[in-house]
Each structure stands twice: as structure tokens, then as C-alpha cells.
Write a structure and sequence with these properties.
By secondary structure, this protein is of the alpha/beta class. It contains 11 helices and 11 strands. Strand 1, helix 1 (about 20-35) and strand 2 (about 40-45) form a beta-alpha-beta unit. The longest helix is centred in the N-terminal third of the chain and has 17 residues, at about 20-35.
Length: about 350
Amino acid sequence: MPGKSRALPRHLLVVRTSAMGDVAMLAHALRALKAAYPGLKITVATRPLFRPFFAGLGVDILDVNTQGEHRTLRSMFVLARRIGELGIDAVADVHDVWRTKCLRFAARLHGVRTSHIDKGHIEKWMRLKSGGATCAAPLRHTVIRYCDALRRLGFRFDDPEPAVRAVRPNPMGEKRGVWLGFAPFSAQRGKTYPRDEACEAVRLLSARCERLFVHGGGGAELEFAREMERRHPNVTAVHGSLDLGAEMDLIAHEDCVVSMDSLVMHLASLVATPVVSVWGATHPSLGYIGYGIDPEGVLQVDMPCRPCSVYGKKECRYGDCRCIRAVTPRMIADRVERMVAKHASR
């Protein structure tokens, strides 16, 4: 039960400005905190683009532009003065990079209590060195690490329950039959599904549903999605037609989403859509899997060389990212069919 201590903060600032998937995961932790302390005022310092992640939680957003006015360390001292003006009496830094470390220091100079996340760098590094991530128990999930940072300020609350389905608007018109989502992209090559395999996956998935939506960004990702539109009449490219909030609404209406270790997996976990998550260079045991998603949806092939890094940034030692290629399009399509049937029966 929540404590009654007068020492508890009344207005909390939570800081996380990137990356998109990590910011999305923060919403789970804040949902649990608000459930335990409904009277607590919470402000999230993040990029304006990420507002839809926190819709319905009753939190305020403090826009942080890390590419503009908040780019320098000096600007963090200016931002700390703004914290005082807003009446914030505690800061939880769940990012813990040099910019936010500076903000924490400046906040303490203004008499504001602070806490920060323990990212578990050492235990993750030891996992990689030992090659034991494929068989060892999962490390602490990032969402729980966020909760721990909040608890260090005196809050007492249970770990979040997985998100539940809610009624959301449908930006793509009336739904008929099975809708699927496919997001084969990532910022890192070792977490991106190869193009040839992705084309075959689209062919197999589009044959098993009424509509298939390809989620991704611009540039080459959009080119791929539009090529799939031309090849398959029931495929739709999402980028450019929906903003982030509407894309989350669409994902909520999909019966299953196929995603790499990337943003769409976390968006699906926020709206409680079943996920088939494909893992290559990284590994779900390191704490970044979509929070609360069904473990049966995880697709990976154990190899002595994986995971090769925590975030997937390291180049493949063999040069061909064989770990993610080992998850075949047929495996994906079959697992999607199983997940759709499983969750349709609930």
C-alpha cells in the first residue's frame, strides 16, 4: 500500500528523452505509479514527438529539444531553473546520460531531491562475455528498473501489470477479418530483418489475412513498404499516412504484430496487441523485450555467437547477420497464425 509520509514528493519530474522504445516503456512504470498515488503530479521531460506514449495517464509533458535549445550541458542548468519555477520537488532520471546527470546535479543545487536508474551495465557486460544469455534467467526488465528509480524517492508500489486492451479509434476504417502488422526494421543491421526474407514474409503474411500493414520510417523503409503495396493488393504502407498516436490506434486494432527488437514491439505492448518478436543480435533476457508480451511470441535461434551486444550496435563477426536470418519467413508466418488463434479464443 502507498505510504502516507509527508516526505513523499508532491510534484515529480521524470526524465527520459530517447530512444523511442525506451521512452515508450516508461509509460508502463508511470501507469503503476499513478495507480498507487493518484494525487501525485507527474511531469515527463521528453521530446514532444513522444506525447502519445503517455496519453490517458494524467501526466504533463515538459518538452525537451536535445537537438536545439537543450543540446548542451550548460542548457541543463537553465532547465533546472525551470524545474524550480514549476514547483517540482523531485527528479527521477531514468536515462542517466551526461546531459541528464548534469540536470540532476543542477537540480540538487536548487534543493530538489533526485534519483536515477541503475542500468545494470556490469551484469549485462558479464552476460555477453560469458555467452550465457541464452540459458540464464532473464535480467531485471528495463520497466522494473524504471520503477526502482521511482521507489528510491520513497514511493511504494507494485510492479506494473501488463497493459490491457482499451477502446481506441480506428484510423483505417471498418475492420473486416484479420489485420496484421509487420515491422521488419531497426536502427541496427543486426536487428533488421533482411530484405529478401522480409519480402517473402510479406507474401506469406498477406496470404493469411485481410489486411497487412507495414510499419516503419521514411527513406529505404518507406520504399520497401510501397513496393510491397504494389506487389500485394491487401498491403498498406503506414509511414506518412498516420502520426504516432494514430499509428498506436491502428496497432491496437491489429490481431498480431511482427516486430524486430525495435519500437513497434513496445508500441504493441502499450496497447496490448499480441506480438511475434524476432531476435537476432540482441536477446530478450537482457531486459528490453516488450513489457508483458506473451513469451510464446518470441522467435529466436540459439547460436554460440549471440547475443553479440546489448543494443545490437556491434558489427556481426561473420558479416552476414546469420542469427536473424536463421528465423525464416515460414517460422514467422506459422507463429503468427498460432498467436492469432490463441488470442482470438480468449
